């Protein structure tokens, strides 16, 4: 479960970074 949580937080980090750059719009 911890591994999945870590992966999830990493994905959300990437999504947030993408949002800042304007690549992703979720």
* Main sheet overview: none
Structural class of the secondary structure composition?
Answer: mainly alpha
Cα Rg: 10 Å
Strand content: under 5%
How many alpha or pi helices?
1
Domain module tally: 1
What oligomeric arrangement do these chains adopt?
single chain
Q: Tell me the span between the first and last alpha carbons.
A: 25 Å
* Overall average residue pLDDT: 78
- Taking pLDDT < 50 over at least 5 consecutive residues as the criterion, the unreliable ranges are none
Q: How would you spell out the order of helices and strands?
A: H
> How many individual β-strands?
0
What is the helix fraction of residues, given as a range?
A: over 70%
Which descriptor suits the 3D outline? rod-shaped
List the helices and strands and how they pair.
Blueprint: H1 2-21
Question: What descriptors fit this protein?
Answer:
26 residues; mainly alpha; rod-shaped; sigma factor activity; RNA_pol_sigma_70_r1_1_sf; RNA polymerase sigma factor 70 region 1.1 domain-containing protein
Notes on the protein architecture:
The protein has one domain. By secondary structure, the protein is mainly α. The N and C termini lie far apart (25 Å). The model has no long low-confidence stretch (mean pLDDT 78). The protein is built from one helix and no strands.
């Amino acid at each position: 479960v911890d591994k999945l949580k870590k992966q999830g937080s990493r994905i959300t980090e990437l999504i947030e970074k993408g949002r800042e750059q304007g690549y992703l719009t979720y």
